[in-house]
What we know:
Number of helices: 16
Radius of gyration: 24 Å
Number of strands: 22
Helix content: 25-40%
Oligomer: single chain
Shape: globular
Amino acid sequence: MKTLLMTTAATLLAGTAFAQSITVGAANISDYLDPGRDHSNVGSQFYYNSFDTLIDRDHSKLEPEWTPALATEWSLVDDTTMELKLRKGVTFHNGEDMTADDVVFSLNRMYQATFAPYVVRSKDRLANFAEAVKIDDYTVQIKTERAEPLWETLVSLQQVMIIPEDYTKALSGDPDVAEDGDFEAFSLAPVGTGPYAISEFVPGQKVVYTRFDDFWGETAPLEQANIIRIPETASRITALKTGEADIVTNIAPDQLDLINADPNLKTEGSATALFHVMIMNVNHPNLTDPKIRQAMSLAIDRDLLNEALWLGKAIVPSTHTMKEMGEMHMPELTTFEYNPEKARELLAASSYNGEEIVFDAYPVYYTNGVLAAQAITEMWAEVGINGRVNVSEEWTGSSPDMMARSWSNPMYFADPFGSFGVMWAPNGPSEGAGRFNTDADYGEAWERFRFSQDVETRKAAYVELMERIKQDPPVLPLYRPFESWAMHQGVEWKPQAGHIPYVLDFRAGAIALTEN
């Protein structure tokens, strides 16, 4: 295990005893690194070490406690304007000083997006944000189209992390103009303001973080962190046992006892703020009858899946809700349930004539994903649904031929809008992909849910949305998976309650290494 490397004698005498590094074996690594365009489960691992938002939160706590980051203070000028004072003395990893110009550039690349991947992210979570405006070198204002009930939440998103304007514009073409080629190039050579610079990136294979000595905040505890892709679970565990890796990701519950039995190893895990889901294409010719999709959903014994695949450690929801949503957490709703008898009745009353329903599943992206798909088609067979699993690395979610598939619905931020809403809003990604439909009534309930300043009004509107999902289902949350990380005994690290799923947080206070 490559930890606790002695520094020079002079440094040792000065009281700074060790330089430390780790290697992480990850199941997957992104093909690009750009916090603005990314919202994948894989990508979310990699940004918090190297990029900052204007407003941060105490990630050790479940309830949001907002803290200064690149902004030292902020206040509302009026219902549609927030003013922020920027931290002075912040340096980007390439040596440039951060000013209001960089902040306005970073925000407006999302708020007024023209680069196609940014347009998608802007539309699904930032559509209410009109522009960022420079007041002076260290003051900016953010303006929205209408009063925003989630100001701090949406200013602290990964997608609005700050990047350097001049560096980015100079990556391709005209250095005075932001072009698509600049953003494509940035995703392969990212630069931020965080405690670690990304010193090496091999798309899909490797990320190397190196301590950034000019970081504005508390010094990074690691000198270097190497993230390498090891796609097979057995290979990741072997790498851990042989010392090639200090931490490995995505360990299924059936491997935990094996790892914990080794006195040199341990595991950390939690039911992550993410749902593994089954999505259904409401517009596929075989599935336009909602009774068929209701039967597909009611036939699935999610508690049995939890016991068989997650040893009972996952969380099976009654509706699309999580405790992380605070006042908007609504476990009293029963949007989703297991009722095979009702499934058979609905199927008999539907237009279903035994057509094959194909369930698409990624081979390795989701822990236990293929096993869950296989079990689901067996449960379908018990109520009379003819199902078949198609295992493929191809994303079929935007194909009109897709019938059902495994997917995930993460909590991108701590609100129902940040989980259900990002995916199932009117004109959102699911409707845009052609697998989901909304109408005026759905849109009206959505508006009350999204923009009301009153929590009870928002909750009442969310009840209406969940009833629509129950009657004409496009999605079934299966469970919040219990995701685990395995590591050497000398690594003190665990996922923090306040992060979005899968973040590898190696900042000060989040990780420590010991001589064990």
